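Replying to the earlier thread about multi-chain prediction with a worked example.

Input:
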Amino acid sequence: MTAQVSDHKDQAATDLGPLLKAENLCTYFFTDDGILRAVDDVSFEIRRGRTLGLVGESGCGKSVTALSLMRLVAPPGRIVRGKITLWDKDGQSKILTDLSDREMRSIRGHKIAMIFQEPMTSLNPVFTIGSQIIEAIRLHQGKPFAEARDLTIQLLQQVGIPNPETRWRDYPHQFSGGMRQRVMIAMALSCQPDLLIADEPTTALDVTIQAQILELLKEIQQKQNMSILIITHDLGVVAELADDVAVMYASKIVEQAPVHTLFDRPCHPYTVGLFRSRPRLGQDKQTRLATIEGNVPNPKDFPSGCKFHPRCPYRQKICEQEEPELREIAAGHAARCHFAGELSFDKLS
Amino acid sequence: MTSGEAYWDIVWRQFCKNRLSSAALWTLLPLFLLAIFAPVLASNVPFYYRDEHGAIWPWFRALFNPEETVDYWFNLALVAFFPWLAASTVWYLWSKRKSKRVYLGTLAGLYVGMILALAGIMQIPGVRPDNRYRARTFPEEEFRRGGQVVALYPLIPFGPTEQDMDSPVKPPFYRKPRYVPGTTGPDVQTGEPVLFWRESNDGFPHILGTDDVGRDVLVRMLYGLRISLTVGFVAVGIYMAIGIVLGALAGYFGGIIDMIISRLIEVIMLFPAFFLILTLVGLLGQSIYIIMVVIGLTGWPTIARLIRGEVLKQRNTDYVTAARAAGASDLRIIFRHVLPNAVSPAMVAAPFGIAGAIITEAGLSLLGFGVRLPAPSWGLLLRTGSENYHYWWLVVFPSLAMFITVTAFNLVGNGLRDAMDPRLRI
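Result:
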């Protein structure tokens, strides 16, 4: 995918109000080996109808962040600190971290829906896809079977499954990966959620199917004014889909900006490293691929001070000692670096 | 592919390809039918009896008032059989789209439902036919002089507990001599016309002989099948129900629930069912319920362990996470999503459990600690056989019955296990 950023809505033009806000979210895993701080002091906001892309390498805590939003973190992990607020259309807000389990269950699948990375195993093999979607519908909307079935067929049509009137009775093993992911999307959309969390939905699919799925998500978003939290490690996906981006590294958000700004003027060395490490068309075959030296740290043993400092080409003494705060550099653009805004990077493209 | 092929359809297809196991399953079907239709084949109460007082239908009344509870339920199954067959045919013709597996499930459920409904109806006072003919016997020789008596008996006119001290330990194909009306002729002394009786040897034979008090062996074997199947299915039913629920809870929730249930499994596994039953029977007296309940309560740990293992595996799958993300509650996830994927090993254990329960009950009856005489348990037949072993038919035929039944269940279990193994897919 090229780094061409497609047209996104301007921030100020169509602001429909806030939808979800996470403030100082901390999710730790209390294991026998010690406390693993998977998500540490993460804050972001998703406004209604907009897409937030959460980018990072494997192991940086993005999936745990998504699970924390749904309060699906399994023990020994739990949300230690922080507040998650959800707004509905009338402006009423609910604090998700305070809700009981039963109240949270009525939100899951209904106001916030999630689709997962592995479409091959996300569907129960002993039930037809139709019955799984119908179950989701009846759980939250209590519709009678016939109505739920008609809605299911409609949804399957919407996500692009051919012959939905016969295929709704088929089993998951009769579908390919891309089709299964569409089924998962149909299931997620069945209750018209306000927020769709997509945890690397296209990672397990090939590139052409990836494009189709992203087109589908964009189309649905436009029709229903649904917000999307897309978690990915692929900057191309971010470019296609996101309006705002948050870059995560080692349990913290290291840079946050609207997508155009991030792609034009990244401020954090990690983000810059990510952009640099993509191979480019027309690059001379003899040049070595740029990499970020070092490895993603193990949560059991995060580096002191700035977590990125062992791999950062711009590190100074202070980076080893003191952890930087997320500082706002320009409007809507923040970075977690002692020298944010001061460093100048070579042209990236 | 028109409609989907679910997991159980695949299992059924593989099972049918296994000749030995299919043959075993086809053997079990007639066994079930024999158990249900036992009174139609063999009973000492006639369907229809007419003498100078009128015509009566004693068999039907006897059907609803048998001596044993086991017989009562099977008789209800008999009564419900043809209505069920009719209802099933109607349903089959009316709804075509479902797969074979759904048919089997619905039909079985329909049958059980009808039997239970019938039992419920029988509880309504006045509905259940009383057994006013219980005290009467209808021996074949009861022909009144001068009157016409017509009696229509089932094929084998002997009952399972009908003693006949005139014919103890008779060999197979023994016909009891009886007196039938002969010619009419002048009485020797008075000269009046009188009916002469003649000895006849054309009564129905005891095909497999009689035991020490004259009861027909074949009929006892037939009714004994009812007891064996009941003990097998009820005991296994109990322990499957307990085992699946506890295993699922232990596997899904983990933590302290798992710890308690696992310790319970370990403790109860130590109890030997057989000896526990011996003890309880010694204390409380012989009863078929003790056998069924004790086998049920000591057998569930094996199942619970199997289910717990599978549930632990299923707990971490993506579709469980997806179901949770869609807002399903824990209980719903366990019973609707996890268990259907987790019951396979337990399903394999079930037929073996039934076979084991049948053998246990027979063994207990053989020792005298099982069902009470004169109930027709196979073990009791063998007990008589072991005491009178010179009479080979008392030993060979009950043993054969048990061999066939138990082997059939074992083969079905084997076939099921092979059918579920993905590596043996054809």
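Chain A touches chain B at residues 70, 72, 105-110, 113-114, 116, 118, 121-128, 135-136, 139-140, 166, 169-171, 174, 184, 187-188 (CB under 8 Å).

Feel free to reuse this layout for your own posts.
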